[in-house]
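Sample entry was shown:

___
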Amino acid sequence: MANYVENNLGKNEKIVMKAKISWLTLIPTALWFVIMVVVMVYFGKLLGDTKEATGGKADADSAKIIAIIYGVCLVIGVLPLLIRVLKNMTTHLAVTNKRVIGKVGVLKVDTIDFHIDKVDNVSYKGSVFGNLFHYYTVSVKGGGGDAKEITAIANAAEFKNKVNEAIELHAEEARKEQAQQIAIAMAAGKKD
């Protein structure tokens, strides 16, 4: 799969750092899947006990109910796991020398694109599992109160620091350029 960040770099734009996506985010959804399998096994045993109690013939209605429970457990066990895998595979986030850029999603795509001088704040937070397994949700706030969040970032603190460094570097370059402009204007004023 092509990387969104590399395919959307501008002229003279270089990647400073890419955020790392943590596959440990699959642990909570995998645990949920295991719970659903246990529920399915329990109801399978219940069906077996029903067959024994009726002399090997299970009630057709109870068999249908257990089949429905199997289907529901399978869907609500597998679906969150698949969604998390797809989200991890399609999450891209980076800071360049000019902006913070990223994307999440396949069908429902959410992009992030803030010019570095428009970034007001970068923060991160972790859920119980996130703090336990060291993955976080990074929030980038830009001018005008616009904010975007990207989940499952393993190196959130380092990413935040790199964004802050890029902001400082950009501001320093802007000050140098402004000083050069003033020097040129003053030199031109002395000639008159």
